[in-house]
Specification:
The complex is a heterodimer. A six-stranded parallel beta sheet of chain A has the order 2-1-3-4-5-11, sandwiched between helices. Chain A has a six-stranded mixed beta sheet with strand order 7-6-8-9-10-12, sandwiched between helices. Helix content of chain A is about 40%, strand content about 20%. Chain A has helices at about 1-20, 40-55, 70-80, 90-100, 125-140, 155-170, 195-205, 220-230, 255-265, 300-315, 320-325, and strands spanning about 25-30, 60, 85, 105-110, 120-125, 145-155, 175-185, 210-215, 230-235, 250-255, 275-280, 285. Chain A starts with a helix and ends in an 8-residue tail after the last helix. Helices cover about 70% and strands about 0% of the residues of chain B. Chain B has helices at about 5-30, 40-60, 60-85, 90-115, 135-140, 145-155, 160-175, 180-190, 190-195, 200-225, 240-250, 255-270, 275-280, 285-300. In chain B, helix 1 (about 5-30) runs antiparallel to helix 10 (about 200-225) and helix 7 (about 160-175) runs antiparallel to helix 12 (about 255-270). The longest helix of chain B has 30 residues, at about 5-30. Chain B is globular, with a radius of gyration of 20 Å. Chain B starts with a helix and ends in a 21-residue tail after the last helix. The chains are: A alpha/beta, B mainly alpha. The interface of A and B includes residues 34, 193 and 244 of A.
């Protein structure tokens, strides 16, 4: 009976894998959810763009809990999807153990750069550079000389955002105060808009008049509270300017959409076994300027920030990356 | 810490403690009647979604509030059916409802609005706005109490004052009315209530439904008072903190107020690391977040006082074997 089961299972697997010659690409969204108006949504937009342009189809999966990761990844890889893209550093360790079992499948993972497998493409964004630019804008826009930062879960990646931001603020206003808060230490910190709003209010009462939220779904609460309290906020990952027109100073763009689009476009020919750095120079990060925040960004502000961006691109100006040595010259966590 | 900062923290405390207080009182009714309810979280989440969704669709926060209460009542009814009528395990029913709520709220909101399980941001009459209490300006010249009245007591949304009024109301109902006496008795010794000719089933159902209404208020407060819209899993474990507060308060209404305010104060303090740093102590923020649970364990362990749950709690009532 057991043997029968094994045989049937093997047959089913064979049938599945042979049916998958077409090899659709697949994407796995992390716990924030596909429509987080931020990181995962950017990934989804990139995948959608690819689908619209090529007429192709892609598989997708949304994580519901931590425990699902390995199972979900294996299931997609077994189904023959190629390449398999996943959003989020939390997949790093799981992918490291799964990837060797599927040598013919190509994997791309965003926000990870510490793995070493021949079939994994690691895509690392230079969030500190983008955060530096929006930090400069915050510093220039602040009248109270105090700005705030609200992080989601307290992980090195989010500290990298905060550290770049603080450096940007100090670059234009060396004596400015940067208030740094993290929402929490568990994944629930990505989805707690109420706490995000309270942190924003607490920062406002300490004098902050521009607040940068790098906190997934929690950030929506931060932006809402800032709009209610009449101060400015800065969105993250996707362009969030439209959420509260005239109240969001800018958004730090992390072009996850481009990364996913390019990975899907390369398909089975995806170059793996390396780390791809998406920085300012390669348009991987940036800041958002559109009709919703045009009135808030003065020409001088734009000129200052663009000048700094050029310097970063040419390598003349180096923004310190928190994750390189776990320290920050401009702020303490 | 200067007085103004202290008042700001108290103001935050009131806002953060209100959903805890409402949920804690909700749990109090149910558990005092002998029905454990671990599903406060799920009911709050459901109410948060239905109230924000209906408020977004109708543009009226009052219709939204009613919908929120109905949503939570629906879940309370299911819990009642499972654990009272069909004598199922109350904890399992509660946990199951939490899971259902976690999924179904996103599903419904996604189906209605297509914004990834979010409701559109509410504005104007679709959300509760802050109420300024009378005499705020004339009283603010009074030293100490004036600013306190202006910063901490005034300027909250309608549901905060409802929550505050519910504390004495609950006390009165539980300890000064016949219904309250029976409710407490049914949680301690349902057989004696039954012998007296009072329906255990009906009493317990009433208690569970009151729990639903209060959870409805708590959820609606979160999505239409504190926030302007529903987001996935936005209750973020407050239902469980409320349960911890209920144990900490030893299932008593006034103590529930104290416990939730204390927990809210810890949460508010955790948002102000600068204040803690100024006192010279170095308390990590996560330690403050964990304090409510630690205190609850301390109380449960009998180190400070003794928490004795209602004796018949968790057991379905069987009339005859």
């Amino acid at each position: 009976m057991t043997l029968m089961k094994t045989l049937l299972g093997a047959a089913a697997t064979l049938a599945l894998s042979s049916a998958m010659v077409s090899a659709d690409p697949a994407i796995i969204f992390d716990l924030g959810g596909k429509f987080d108006k931020s990181f995962n949504e950017a990934a989804f937009n990139g995948a959608t763009k690819w689908a619209q342009e090529t007429g192709g189809t892609f598989k997708e999966l949304e994580m519901q809990s931590e425990a699902q990761r390995e199972q979900a990844l294996r299931r997609l890889a077994e189904s023959g999807a190629n390449p398999v893209v996943m959003t989020g550093f939390a997949f790093g360790d799981v992918l490291n153990s799964v990837a060797p079992d599927f040598p013919d499948t190509k994997f791309a993972i965003i926000d990870v750069d510490w793995l070493d497998q021949p079939n994994i493409l690691q895509i690392a964004f230079s969030e500190h550079e983008g955060s530096y630019l929006v930090g400069m804008m915050a510093g220039l826009a602040s009248k109270t000389n105090t700005v705030g930062f609200v992080g989601g879960m307290d992980v090195p990646l989010i500290r990298k955002f905060g550290c770049g931001y603080a450096q940007g603020v100090k670059a234009v206003k060396p004596d400015a105060t940067v208030i740094l808060n993290m929402t929490g230490t568990t994944p629930a910190a990505w989805n707690d808009p109420v706490k995000g709003a309270e942190i924003a209010k607490a920062q406002k009462s300490q004098g902050a008049d521009v607040i940068y939220a790098a906190a997934g779904g929690t950030g929506v609460g931060v932006l809402q509270a800032a709009a209610d309290e009449g101060i400015l906020s800065i969105g993250v990952d996707s362009n969030q300017n439209y959420l509260f027109p005239g109240k969001v100073l800018t958004s730090m763009l992390k072009r996850v959409d481009n990364a996913v689009y390019e990975a899907f476009k390369a398909g089975a020919d995806l170059e793996t076994g390396k780390v791809k750095v998406m920085n300012l120079a390669s348009d991987g990060v940036g800041y958002a300027l559109d009709e919703h925040n045009a009135a808030l960004v003065t020409p001088e502000m734009k000129a200052t920030v663009d000048a700094a961006a050029e310097k970063i691109k040419s390598g003349e100006l180096v923004v310190h990356d928190y994750m390189s040595d776990d320290t920050c010259p401009a702020a303490t966590f | 810490m200067d007085y103004a900062t202290f008042l700001q923290i108290l103001d935050t405390t009131v806002r953060l403690a209100t959903p805890l207080l409402l949920a804690c009182l909700a749990g109090l009714y149910s558990e005092r009647a002998g029905v454990f309810d671990i599903g406060l979280e799920g009911k709050m989440l459901m109410a948060a979604m239905t109230s924000a969704a209906v408020a977004a669709l109708t543009g009226s926060v009052w219709v939204g509030l009613a919908a929120g209460i109905l949503g939570a009542l629906l879940f309370a009814l299911v819990h009642g059916l499972a654990s009272i009528t069909f004598r199922g395990n109350q904890l399992i029913s509660g946990v199951a409802l939490n899971f259902v709520a976690s999924g179904i709220t996103v599903l419904i909101a996604q189906d209605l609005f297509g914004q990834g399980g979010r409701t559109p941001p509410l504005s104007g009459g679709a959300r509760f706005n802050a109420i300024s209490l009378p005499f705020v300006d004339s009283l603010s010249v009074v030293p100490i109490l004036g600013p306190m009245y202006r910063e901490v007591i005034s300027g909250h949304t309608f549901l905060v004052y409802v929550a505050a009024a519910l504390v004495p109301a609950t006390w009165w109902l539980l300890y000064r009315t016949r219904f309250g006496l029976r409710l407490r008795a049914v949680g301690e010794n349902p057989a004696s209530v039954d012998t007296a000719g009072v329906s255990v089933i009906r009493l317990r159902f009433t208690a569970v439904l009151i729990t639903g209404v209060l959870c409805g208020l708590a959820g609606a407060y979160m999505s239409t008072g504190l926030q302007a819209g529903f987001g996935r899993e936005m209750t973020a474990g407050r239902g469980y903190i409320a349960l911890a507060a209920l144990i900490f308060a030893k299932w008593r209404p006034w103590q529930a107020l104290g416990a939730t305010m204390l927990f809210g104060f810890f949460q508010a303090l955790a948002l102000r690391p600068d204040v803690i740093a100024k006192t010279g102590l170095s308390i990590p923020v996560p330690a403050l977040d964990a304090l409510p649970y630690i205190l609850t364990v301390v109380v449960l362990a009998g180190i400070v006082g003794k928490a004795i749950p209602p004796r018949a709690g968790g057991e379905p009532y069987v009339k005859e074997r």
